[in-house]
Amino acid sequence: MTGAKPLHFQLGISKRGNKYLRRMIVHGARSCVTHLDRSRDRLGPWLDGLESRMHKNKVTVALAAKIARIVWVILTKPGATYERRVPAFG
Q1: Tens digit of pLDDT for each residue in 10-29?
Q2: Considering only CA atoms, which of 16, 6, 8 is closest in space to residue 60?
Q3: Rounded to 5 degrees, what angle do the CA atoms 51, 69, 8 make?
């Protein structure tokens, strides 16, 4: 083995493509990590688990990668829509 993979491949967001779009997705993810009401959102427990294991910047990039995958499916799959579902806590 030649060593660890570069960070941008480990977290699933590539540095190829439109830099502006990638920057906006990361900024949106940073806002979600900071301001999301985690008790009322399905991503809350996932984000809490990540933050207990890794640095906040890595959590932000991981969320940005998740958002980018959702956007990709909506744009490329005919008839795909995003439906926000209320979490079934309780």
Answers
A1: 455 777 888 898 899 999 99
A2: 8
A3: 60
Q: How far is CA 21 from CA 6, 16, 28, 41, 47, in A?
A: 21, 11, 11, 24, 22
Amino acid making up residue 19: K
Structure tokens at 81: 């829509």
Q: Six-digit token pair at 40?
A: 């009322």
pLDDT tens readout for residues 53-74:
999 999 999 999 999 988 888 8
Residues 6+ apart with CB under 8 A from 71: 25
**Chain position carrying tokens 């540095």:** 15
Q: What is the separation of C-alpha 33 from the centre of its chain, rounded to a whole number of angstroms?
A: 9
